[in-house]
Automatic annotation (TrEMBL):
Keywords: Calcium, Disulfide bond, Endoplasmic reticulum, Signal. It comes from Caenorhabditis tropicalis. Residues 1-15 form the signal peptide. This is Glucosidase 2 subunit beta. SUPFAM superfamilies: EF-hand, LDL receptor-like module, Mannose 6-phosphate receptor domain. Residues 151-202, 275-337 are annotated as: Disordered.
Length: 491
């Protein structure tokens, strides 16, 4: 601890001392650190990690004395040190000291090959001009993007304020509707109970008529007496025709009402309709024979009477088997139930719509759309990019998909989970997870790298690992004010 405190305070005190005289240049050291490499009053140098003190003459003597390599910033003696290229006219930068005097020009000013015999041309001015042009181009994009970002921030803040402002009125409207909804729900239940009770009584009456032995159950033999089940019209109801409606030996009231009633009612209706059509055909045939000039008239008349007798007998049998139509009181109860359902459904739909809008507003308030809410402007918007036969879609705060180009639906590549940028730049990345399961692999996921751009655009899609996708999205929302940024040439 004492050593660390010493390192913190001594360089500062030492710096104050050396400011009184010109700083001595040291090869491989940037100007901002020269104060750490000035000779002390005892002509010694203390390693920057504080591990030991050496003679000042041992600096850059091509022998590594300090464990941190700080005594050899200008030679290749230490493998863990760095050499500073001043690169006047361009940007200064550090390179590993093992690249010093290796006969390869790493610094644009050639300063790294000062003792290798290699003549490195100084191309810093040329590179500096190109870098400045590129920086200005990037700055222009950032400047335009930043202006749009400010507009989007206003749009997002307005949207946020609007959503939050609507929450309380929506809650009040919901509270006002709730008593009416509860009352109508009670009315609906009462009307449906009354309707169901009368319908059950009507069904029970018909069931009792089918229950010939009054045992409280209907067996196959009793069901066989109903000719409307004679689907093949052979004059009697077969075992198979009975089994189509009753697969057990006998049916109690619960079984009859839940599994047989509706089907028997339909069979009865179909049977009556067939009989009506047959009767119409017989009448038409009789009318066609009325003008016959010979004895066939007599035969036709006899056939007609026979047919009428058959139809009459059939109708008589049907009347015996047919379940009576609902009486007026049942029909009235059904109409009341329908009206009660309509009134309840109308109010209930309004409350559900209000609940949905309240949830949306609350979700908005709890969501992170950036410090100035600018990202809210992209909520519910999506951006596509075609790559070979696929179309990839990126929906901020929604779901990413991959689909065949032109297809309606696709494969989920994950839904938005969190901002995943590093500390200090949180909004530079997004993570989407829990996508569609890969065959013999993980659930699909997507990481979004966000870059500054004049327009919102999905510019790149890759799959660096199986079912793990990487998107690059350019947007004004990632642009900061370039005129306020400070470029540091030393680090």
């Amino acid at each position: 601890m004492l050593l660390k405190l010493f390192l913190l305070f001594v360089p500062a005190a030492f710096a104050e001392d050396v400011t009184q005289r010109q700083l001595k240049p040291v090869k491989g050291v940037p100007h901002s650190r020269l104060n750490l490499y000035q000779p002390s009053t005892t002509d010694t140098f203390r390693c920057l990690d504080g591990s030991q003190t050496i003679l000042y003459s041992q600096l850059n003597d091509d022998y590594c004395d300090c464990k941190d390599g700080s005594d050899e910033p200008g030679t290749a003696a230490c493998g863990n040190a760095h050499f500073y290229c001043s690169n006047v006219g361009h940007r200064g930068n550090f390179i590993p000291t093992n690249r010093v005097n290796d006969k390869l020009c790493d610094c644009c000013d050639g300063s790294d090959e000062y003792d290798s015999g290699v003549d490195c041309p100084n191309i810093c001015d040329e590179l500096g001009r190109a870098a400045r042009i590129e920086r200005e181009k990037i700055a222009n994009v950032a400047r335009k993007g930043f202006q749009k970002r400010q507009e989007l921030a206003k749009e997002g803040q307005t949207l946020r304020d609007s959503k939050l402002k609507d929450v309380e009125p929506l809650r009040q409207e919901r509270a006002t509707l709730e008593p009416e909804r509860s009352r109508l729900e009670t009315d609906k239940k009462s009307a449906e109970d009354a309707e169901r009770k009368l319908q059950d009584e009507h069904r029970n009456q018909w069931e009792a008529e089918l229950d010939l032995d009054k045992s409280g159950k209907i067996d196959k033999e009793e069901l066989r007496q109903n000719l409307f089940l004679d689907e093949d019209n052979d004059g009697f109801v077969s075992e198979d025709e009975v089994n189509a409606y009753l697969t057990i030996d006998e049916a109690d009231p619960e079984h009859f009402q839940s599994l047989m009633y509706d089907r028997l009612k339909t069979a009865k209706r179909n049977h009556l309709e067939d009989a009506r059509i047959k009767e119409e055909e017989e009448k038409e045939r009789a009318r066609a024979l009325e003008n016959a000039p010979d004895d066939d008239d007599l035969l036709a008349e006899e056939d007609r009477h026979d047919s009428e007798d058959v139809t009459s007998n059939q109708e008589s049998d049907d009347d015996n088997d047919k379940m009576p139509e609902y009486p007026p009181e049942v029909q009235v109860a059904s109409e009341k139930a329908r009206e009660a359902r309509r009134l309840f459904d109308e109010v209930n739909q309004k409350t559900q719509d209000l609940d949905s809008r309240i949830r949306e507003a609350e979700d908005f308030a709890n969501s992170d759309y950036g410090e100035d809410s600018a990202w809210a402007a992209l909520k519910d918007k999506c951006f596509d990019r075609n790559v070979q036969q696929y179309t990839y879609q990126f929906c901020p705060f929604g779901q990413n998909t991959q689909k065949d180009t032109g297809a309606y639906s696709g494969t989920s590549l994950g839904s938005f989970k969190e901002w995943s940028g590093p500390d200090g730049n949180k909004y530079s990345k997004m993570h989407f997870g829990d996508g569609q399961q890969c065959w013999n692999g993980p659930k699909r996921s997507t990481d979004i790298t966000i870059e500054c751009g004049e327009e919102n655009e999905l510019v790149e899609v890759t799959e660096p690992a199986k079912c793990e996708y990487l998107f690059t999205f350019r947007t004004p929302l990632a642009c900061s004010d370039p005129d306020k940024e400070v470029i540091h040439d030393e680090f």
